[in-house]
Structures are given as structure tokens and as C-alpha cells.
Write a structure and sequence with these properties.
Number of helices: 7
Radius of gyration: 15 Å
Structural class: mainly alpha
Distance between the termini: 32 Å
Mean pLDDT: 92
């Protein structure tokens, strides 16, 4: 929990990853993860949202993930989309947003000079929709 507020974004990211894998759902963990939803580093916010959804607290967390699907940075879109894919049925309320990012990925993939990550965004969106 202490590392989730470290000045280094990489340390905060790995702290959030640890909390995603943690079985602890104490209120202090939940509160810390809710605060991390507003982290300046998208990777920290995405992992915090994933942890909260796994705890069954998806109200604002799911919205954070779907907001990142609209990012201008393909790596951020991929990270959020992959998190939604791995959440399985818990991501069902985001079906419309996942369909939209699937269409965006298909379009981006065919654009000259497209970033290769768009292909993986498409793969992830297709897998999420098949869950």
C-alpha cells in the first residue's frame, strides 16, 4: 500500500500489480486503490481499476478503463483493452465501448504507417467480446 503512493510511477505500477494479485480486500486497500484511479500514470490507474473490479467494486473503476479506450496513445488503449479482456464477464457492462474500440482498431490497422499495437488491440477486443 505504501508503494502505491511512491513518487516513481514504475514503483506505483508494480504496487498496483501486486494489489491486483492480492486476495486482500480490506477497506484500506480499497481506499488506496480508489485514490490510485486518479494517478497521472495511466498504467497505475488501469491496474488500480482492474484490482477494484476484481474486488467487485466496479462502479467508477469500469468507467476509468473505458475512458482509457479513447486515449490517443495506442499502448494505453491496449493496456485498458487487455485488462477488460482478462476481467471476463465482469467487463460485460463495457460491451458497447469494447465494440467501439474494435471498430477503431480495425480502421487504425488499415491506415498507412499504423502502429502494430492496433492489431493486438483488435485481438483483445475480439476476445473480450467472445467471453
Amino acid at each position: 500500500l505504501k508503494l502505491l503512493t511512491d513518487p516513481d510511477r514504475g514503483v506505483r505500477y508494480w504496487a498496483a500489480i501486486g494489489l491486483v494479485a492480492s486476495p486482500h480486500t480490506a477497506m484500506t486497500v480499497t481506499d488506496s486503490l480508489k485514490n490510485a484511479l486518479d494517478d497521472v500514470a495511466p498504467e497505475v490507474s488501469i491496474e488500480a481499476a482492474t484490482a477494484l473490479i476484481r474486488q467487485g467494486k466496479s462502479d467508477r473503476a469500469l468507467g476509468v478503463l473505458t475512458e482509457y479506450l479513447e486515449s490517443d496513445t495506442v499502448e494505453v488503449v491496449l493496456h485498458a483493452m487487455r485488462s477488460l479482456e482478462l476481467l471476463g464477464p465482469a467487463a460485460k457492462p463495457a460491451t458497447r465501448e469494447i465494440q467501439q474500440v474494435l471498430q477503431r482498431a480495425a480502421t487504425e490497422e488499415t491506415t498507412a504507417g499504423a502502429h502494430a499495437c492496433w492489431m493486438f488491440v483488435r485481438f483483445s477486443a475480439e476476445a473480450a467480446l467472445s467471453n
